[in-house]
């Protein structure tokens, strides 16, 4: 009886160990020392940026994107700016496939003295570890002319798992066209966006991996074998 109980405990421990959630992770740099600007819409300004993109790779231990934060400041008429955030897969100089996440429309910053942190919470997006994605800030098609912001960036390579990209376009077709994005550099716009991303583990209710199922099956088989042996000895 004690042997059977011991095997049951071991099997239960295996089940628990293979289903425990992994650690949440936060990465990025939220302290801007440069900026991508003018971001928005203005027919009189040269070099207006329609989309700012920060690429990233999903961490293997925490593949669920929970939230992210960006930094904005007023460039000109910034309070009137309308924009939204999107998550796409990214390939070299363009996005690939449909948007995996699109936020509600947000208004720009009117802060002329510093940066406002804007957090997008409740994203809850399960991504594939190791794949390259891009967080896009896109000027909305309904944004008025003459409304622009600074998007906070960092000069140093503060984030080793991705980089900053700039595009004049902002629609799905424009950002999905080959050559849509140009990689930024430290002196012009910075090397990374001033941002943070919060990742969490996949939900416990997700389908177990084959290896986990094999461990559980081995434990159940062992329990059955020992119970039969114990039963035969007592007869």
Order of helices and strands: HEEEEEEEEEEEEHEEEH
Could you tell me the CATH topology label of the largest domain: Jelly Rolls
Note the total helix count: 3
Structural class from helices and strands? alpha+beta
By CATH, the architecture of the largest domain is named: Sandwich
Return residue spans where pLDDT drops below 50 for at least 5 consecutive residues. Answer: 2-21
Strand content: 35-45%
Average of per-residue pLDDT values = 84
Query: Which value, in Å, is the CA radius of gyration?
Result: 25 Å
Query: What is the top-level CATH class of the largest domain?
Result: Mainly Beta
Please give the largest β-sheet: 8 strands, antiparallel
Domain tally: 2
Number of E strands: 15
Range of helix content: 10-25%
Q: So what's the overall shape?
A: globular
Give the end-to-end Cα distance, rounded to a whole number of Å. Answer: 14 Å
């Amino acid at each position: 009886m004690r042997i059977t109980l011991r095997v049951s405990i071991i099997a239960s421990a295996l089940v628990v160990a293979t289903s425990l959630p992994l650690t949440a992770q936060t990465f990025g740099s939220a302290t801007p020392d440069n900026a991508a600007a003018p971001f928005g819409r203005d027919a009189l300004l040269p070099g207006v940026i329609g989309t700012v993109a920060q690429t990233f790779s999903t961490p293997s231990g925490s593949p669920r994107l929970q939230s992210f934060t960006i930094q904005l400041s007023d460039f000109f008429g910034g309070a009137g700016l309308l924009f939204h955030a999107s998550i796409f897969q990214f390939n070299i100089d363009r996005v690939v496939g449909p948007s995996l996440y699109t936020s509600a429309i947000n208004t720009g910053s009117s802060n002329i003295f510093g940066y406002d942190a804007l957090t997008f919470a409740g994203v809850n997006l399960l991504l594939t570890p190791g794949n390259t994605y891009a967080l896009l800030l896109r000027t909305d098609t309904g944004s008025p002319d003459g409304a622009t912001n600074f998007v906070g960036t960092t000069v140093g390579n503060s984030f080793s798992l991705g980089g900053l990209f700039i595009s004049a376009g902002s629609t799905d077709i424009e950002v999905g066209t080959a050559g849509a994005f140009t990689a930024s550099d430290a002196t012009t716009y910075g090397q990374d966006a001033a941002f943070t991303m919060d990742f969490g583990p996949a939900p416990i209710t997700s389908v177990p991996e084959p290896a986990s199922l094999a461990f559980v099956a081995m434990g159940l088989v062992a329990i059955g074998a020992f119970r039969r042996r114990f039963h035969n000895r007592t007869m």
